[in-house]
Structure prediction request, 479 residues.
Amino acid sequence: MGRAAPEGNAAPRTPPDPAATKAPATDAPGTGSAGRARDWAPTSWQDRPAAQQPEYPDEAALKKVLAELSTLPPLVTTWEIESLKSQIAEAAAGERFLLQGGDCAERFDDCQSTMIANKLKILLQMSLVLVHGTQKRVIRVGRFAGQYAKPRSAETETVDGLELPTYRGDSINRVPFSEADRRPDPQLLLRGYERAALTLNFIRSLIDGGFADLHHPEYWNLGFVEHSPLASEYSRIVESIGHSLRFMETLAGVEVGQINRVDFFTSHEGLHLLYEQSQTRQVPHRTGWYNLSTHFPWIGMRTAKVDEAHVEYFRGIRNPVAIKIGPAMTNDWLAELLDVLHPDNEPGRLTLIHRMGAHGIAEHLPRLIEAVQRSGKQVLWVCDPMHGNTETTADGIKTRKFEHILAELEQAFEIHANAGTYLGGVHFELTGEDVTECTGGARGLSEADLKRAYRTHVDPRLNYEQALEMAMRVARRVG
Ligand code: PEP
Ligand code: CO
Prediction:
């Protein structure tokens, strides 16, 4: 995502009609293979059961919002999406490494310049460390500019005998525990779209202004660096990259244009299908449909059933897509997902993000790798060491242990090496702030520390120092 450029977009051919029961299935995304035999349209998912969708009490208000969203301009462009797809293809082939990270759920209130810049800084610092360790180009993907809708294990929550819908993310309902706040409000979808646009606008401007220039890693310093136990290792890495850059520039006699700026791509869980549909467009000079609300949407673990709505929706979009796979994923199920979502083995199309937990990965990952190998298809393998390692303290606080996160990652590298596959990326829930949500790390955060700065309303994130340390540990492992 370098320079922002306008992209003409045709209005969706099929207006987003939440009440539609029969999709005007006019567009087959391809022909031939089993998964694509059925016709597809941006609305065809509406014929299938859709898990994790909010129920809006005011249907007319919802329709109005969706009609507006479907005419508002796209947030990203197809050439950015295609560029990411080709970079993911290179990662799948072992030539790049993907770093994906950000909040579990973005909050509207956090759409502020400092917080956005801090998120970029930590991702840039981590990627610098990973470039150094892996000696590969790193693809940077934020869980940002649209990560506003969350799947939940329970539909409702009960406090003092009052049962209300659970909080499902800022684009759906609100955190406070009152009937009005927890009622899904379609206006929040518009607010989410706007926040995503504001976030992207700021990120694009920062990048265009040179914020991500590799010659100036000092722009990315977060206050902690000089006081951190990791400071000297990080400074050594920065210095060494500076030397390499200058060396290459001396050899080439020019600035290394290709590598002096870095790109960012956006991703979010493609959960709220009416929202995703409203930004699904065709554009001049390209075939097929693109989700233009993000570069890289993923299917969450709770919505990955082959015959259900999310897989149907994802089947027809041209974006690179990812699926989260957990211990409950069976080999046959994964094989079917590959048939449906990756029928042509298109390079860069499919990423599998495994999230097994430090105690489950040795049992489940090898069989799933074999299932993919049997399919003969190429995917990008990414490890999310967060979502299989969530636990609750005796005080009822949701947390994750640094050692468990690291242990899952280390096993992931080993299992892939043994299987002859390439672990080409990592996926973290992290923040550029000094929160205390996960325990452990170089500062040895304890359960008692969690109360100091526990801010998340969903999953616990690595704070900036823990995130940087994690990148250093990964870099040492793969270097
Ligand atoms: C998430 O990434 O925040 C999430 C809910 O993940 P998963 O679908 O893997 O549980
Ligand atoms: Co999460």
